[in-house]
Amino acid sequence: MSTCIHPRHGTEPPLVAASLMLCERCLTILQTDLRAIVALWPLLAEFATPGNGWSSGGAAGKPGSRPPCNVDILDITHARGVIVQSIGGWARMVIEQRQLSASPADAEQAARLLTIHADWVAAQPWADEACAEIHDAAYAIRRVCKDLPDRPIGYCPDIDPRGESDRCGGPLRWIDGSTAVR
């Protein structure tokens, strides 16, 4: 058996299933990131328009001091932007290597195609690069849509239930209205 090629594991990467290059955890992260891109992409156009409460609109009494929309969203959705080029590039790689006839029109369709072929992507020698770039794209989209989880208040000190390391290390977050964490 081989080990996961993603650099997030450091010196002790976990074993991977036969014919895959990514471990189950990395594959799950890739699939989650792709689903987030598909779900949040349609919201970006709405958030970019002025007056919706999400833009970085100008200050009252100071005309022209700030752009009337969120420039970060425009950077993400621009056809020649890093995010669109990254997602589209990986989709083109899948289309070429799998000899598909698909032609995604935008990043959302490219992410849908990648979601369908995520297991195949995880078996490629470039899967770690794709996983990292898609994760960065999903994070940028989540950030501008304000869809990030709260910062953790600590990390789980219990024994790792997966057996990958000595400690679980999962994030602990406050549950509103209670004395519990999750």
Q: What would you say this structure looks like, in words?
A:
Residues 54-58 have low confidence and may be disordered. This protein is 45% helix and 2% strand. It contains six helices and two strands. The chain starts with 23 loop residues before the first helix and ends in a 10-residue tail after the last strand. The protein has helices at residues 24-48, 71-77, 82-98, 107-116, 118-121, 127-144, and strands at 154-155, 171-172.
Brief summary:
This protein is mostly helical. The protein has six helices and two strands; from the N terminus they run H-H-H-H-H-H-E-E.
Write the layout of secondary structure elements.
Blueprint: H1 24-48, H2 71-77, H3 82-98, H4 107-116, H5 118-121, H6 127-144, E1 154-155, E2 171-172
Antiparallel strand pairs: 1-2
Helix pairs in contact: 1-2, 1-4, 1-6, 3-4, 3-6
Features:
182 residues, single chain, mainly alpha, 6 helices
- Side by side, the strands of the main sheet go 1-2
What is the straight-line distance between the termini?
34 Å
| Mean pLDDT across all amino acids | 82
Number of distinct beta strands: 2
The main sheet comes to:
2 strands, antiparallel
Taking all Cα atoms into account, the compactness measure Rg is 20 Å
